[in-house]
Amino acid sequence: MLTHLAVVAILAAAASSASAQVLRGTIVDAQSSRQLPAADIGLIDARGQRAAGTRSDSAGAFQFELPQPGAYQLQVNLIGYATFNSEAVPLRQGETIDVLIRLSTVALPLTPLVITARRRASDRLAEFERRRTTFGTGHFISRADIERRPIATASELLIGAPYVSLIDNRILFPGTIDEYCRANVYIDGQLITRSIDVDDLLISDWIEGIEVYPRAGVAPAEYQRNDCGSILFWTREPRAGGRWTRVKIAVAALFAMGTILLIR
User: Fold this and answer.
1) Which domain holds residue 181?
2) Number of domains in the chain
């Protein structure tokens, strides 16, 4: 009975970890869009208590993996900037939300918190994998390609892709009217506004794959927005704290059983 209870407890903990909710994002300067490292980010739960805390990394990025869904507020403090308190952000079961937070020393001319993507883990990569494995018309950058360039930014991962030019942090293709046109950039199927730099939203470690379509006519129909081509970024499964796979669960269960038998 004791062995059975121990294994059940381990399986329950593993299942909870595997269904974690993720809230992640980037902290930038509202005026210059410069990424801000070392910001203190607190996660406030529905009771007004600080449920978790972290600091933004050198790319201004942060991530929380939460065991329970719910509505959470973000509180950000950084020396030289006004304290930022967000509205409550609802996080549903198994959901990942990406946000962009703009800090300022003065009244903000732009919305300080922007939710840039909201999605379920189960369908995040379905489109990318379907086209990549059926030899779609685009140029595909896989996770293996990305890992060979660990210090590249999201936009720098496009260097060497057909027809892509990077000028002043803008991703450009040859234009049909002007010399260049600005690419339509999507993150997990959602178009981002041209006033936002993709490097403010993504770091390379979050990216699972990229699709490059230099002309509108070769992009999938749902990503043909104008005469310019499209770039599709697809994010990977969250890895913070590790994920409980069936192998990990089995090893943990066997370890617990062996330990209990030794004690007995």
Assistant:
1) 126-235
2) 2
